[in-house]
Amino acid sequence: MTVQDWFEKRKEAQIQRRALEARVEIEANPDLWTKCVHCDAQLLKKDIEDNQMVCPVCDYHFRINARTRIQQLFDHDTFVEMFSEIKPTDPLDFADTETYKDRLDSAQKKTGLDDAVITGIAEIEGHKVATAVMDFDFMGGSMGSVVGEKVTRIIEKAIDLRLPVLAITSSGGARMQESALSLMQMAKTSCACARLDEAGLLYINLITDPTFGGVTASFGTLGDIIVAEQGARVGFAGRRVIEQTIRQKLPSDFQTAEYLLKYGQVDVVSSRKNLRDTLANILAMHE
Fold this sequence. Notes:
Layout: H1 3-28, E1 33-35, E2 42-44, H2 45-50, H3 66-73, E3 80-82, H4 100-111, E4 117-124, E5 127-134, H5 145-161, E6 165-171, H6 180-198, E7 203-211, H7 213-216, E8 225-229, H8 239-246, H9 257-262, E9 268-270, H10 272-285
Parallel strand pairs: 5-6, 6-7, 7-8, 8-9
Antiparallel strand pairs: 1-2, 3-4, 4-5
Helix pairs in contact: 5-6
């Protein structure tokens, strides 16, 4: 064995030992670690949280809930929630594998929210804005009567107060458990957006991952300026449904924010760390 072979063998043994030590640490402290779903890197949860829930290895943007989004984007202690008294019911007495009421109860316990959107007034670097922030953790961010009503009301409040509106979307579409009642929210929110436009007020869409279905087809893409978070997937029907319908293979980046930017369907794609500055600049230019 040459000296070089000896050093190579020793180096390989050290790498294997470090990998074993890392594996032992991960197994011993599973609550401290998580795996990036994009690059498979084992990461300390604290490192991801300190990086605004973005993978420090591959820059993958993890989904975040509405409360975290509010904390990241708005000036400290400026968010004032409105219309929290509007709560969902079960008008159709709907049941599939379980009752709609049970699904609502489960989602409310899981998220601490009454429904899939939080609405209120906040500030971004001193610029006041009316906002609706959706939460995908609540039944896939589906839009039912409460979501439609709260989004409409915050837009109407913005018209009364002469404020710009920022809608932050994350949704799988309409809520099937409310049937036609959920579909009616598309028309209601779209009409509210039209009234906002007639009032000459700024409407900004911030599209986050994922935004699909009835939200994309209504208030989610009617903004004067459409900003998409880096890597967000946006569309109406899902990729697999489209491929089966047209019997063609779609591009690998189809329905991503970057793909939509290339074809003029969004105006800005921003990383999470730059979102606050991006929105503040847009608001400042339109004051």
